[in-house]
């Protein structure tokens, strides 16, 4: 199945909870630091955030990072120093390349509904590029019960482009008992956003059950499959090469 596989349970993640934010961090982030958990492959941040209605992150700065946001519920209002204003909804792929430096805010514009999103940071393959922003809707493709490219450094059609040739983010919304093949790669990060899945080797001799919030980190992975439970599932898979 893989030379190495490590299962990370959702409850083991770092946790930040304040009046307007409930955030779970897969890797070291902010005040949460573990030198043994600084990321996986090229993925440095995998934050699972619930932002209360009318709240959010005020203007703050980033540089030399590829930032991908995936909304699960609600809407996100993005504003940045490039003059971009975007509303990101479920089914939208959004990428901000921080490059030489950019400031932005991320707000839940609703007065009644909480916002649930995943934000992921990936190292760029080139530092000092011009900052940029891209947003695309891929909702129709997600109905196919397949892995759909959401953010890609390899020119996948329909995906936002990231400045990292060794990384592709795939998303699948699986119906009950739906199944997809996990890409083989030096580093593969599987995160379950909703529902639950079985991660199994091709011969089905090895199997793990992953619930919402759980992740699997596969190193030098061989062929494996994700199969949704009866409730279905939404999974995000980072396929990554060598740094």
Automatic annotation (TrEMBL):
Looking at the record, the residues that make up the Pirin N-terminal domain are 16-122
Q: Which CDD domains match?
A: cupin_Yhhw_N
Q: Which InterPro entries match?
A: Pirin (IPR012093), Pirin_N_dom (IPR003829), Quercetinase_C (IPR041602), RmlC-like_jellyroll (IPR014710), RmlC_Cupin_sf (IPR011051)
Coiled-coil residue spans? none
The record's listing under SUPFAM superfamilies reads: RmlC-like cupins
Quercetin 2,3-dioxygenase C-terminal cupin domain location is 150-240
The entry assigns this protein to a family as follows: Belongs to the pirin family.
Query: Protein name, please?
Result: Unannotated protein
């Amino acid at each position: 199945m893989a030379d190495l596989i490590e299962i990370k349970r959702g409850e083991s993640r770092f946790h930040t909870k304040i009046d307007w934010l409930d955030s779970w961090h897969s890797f070291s982030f902010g005040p949460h630091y573990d030198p043994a958990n600084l990321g996986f492959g090229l993925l440095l941040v995998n934050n699972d955030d619930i932002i209360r209605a009318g709240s959010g992150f005020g203007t703050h700065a980033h540089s030399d990072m590829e930032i991908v946001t995936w909304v699960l519920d609600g809407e996100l209002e993005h504003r940045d120093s490039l003059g971009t204003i975007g509303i990101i909804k479920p089914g939208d792929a959004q990428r901000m390349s921080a490059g030489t430096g950019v400031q932005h805010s991320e707000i839940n514009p609703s007065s009644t509904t909480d916002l649930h999103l995943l934000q992921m940071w990936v190292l760029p393959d080139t530092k000092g590029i011009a900052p940029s922003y891209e947003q695309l809707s891929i909702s129709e493709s997600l109905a196919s019960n397949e892995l759909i490219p959401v953010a890609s450094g390899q020119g996948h059609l329909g995906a936002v482009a990231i400045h990292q040739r060794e990384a592709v983010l795939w998303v699948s919304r699986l119906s009950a008992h739906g199944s997809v093949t996990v890409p083989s790669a030096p580093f593969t990060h599987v995160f379950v956003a909703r529902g639950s899945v079985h991660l199994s080797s091709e011969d089905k001799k090895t199997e793990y059950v992953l619930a919402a919030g759980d992740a699997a980190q596969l190193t030098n992975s061989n062929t494996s499959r994700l199969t949704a439970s009866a409730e279905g599932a939404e999974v995000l898979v980072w396929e990554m090469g060598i740094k």
